[in-house]
# Entry
Amino acid sequence: MISNKKDIVSPQALALKFYEGYKPRERPSAIIMGDKEIKIKKIIWQKRLRDYKTGAQREIFLCETANSRLKLTILPGERFIIEFID
# Structure
């Protein structure tokens, strides 16, 4: 969990790892923050949303890690938002 200024990493140092079964980028398996890897132990909830005007699709995951829960929103164009819940 990001707890103080020294733990904040640049956006270039953030990445997602995915489990890839029969289709690519099936579900997130870890978040890479600099040299740290936060493994996703469980996906509690998942939803896919589509913007009807643009057709852009995003996926929202409520995930559990070893120390917290987080909301992960995956946007088009390899972009994503991570929100730590607790």
Q: What stands out?
A: The CA atoms of residues 9 and 46 lie 26 Å apart. The first strand starts at residue 14 and ends at 19.
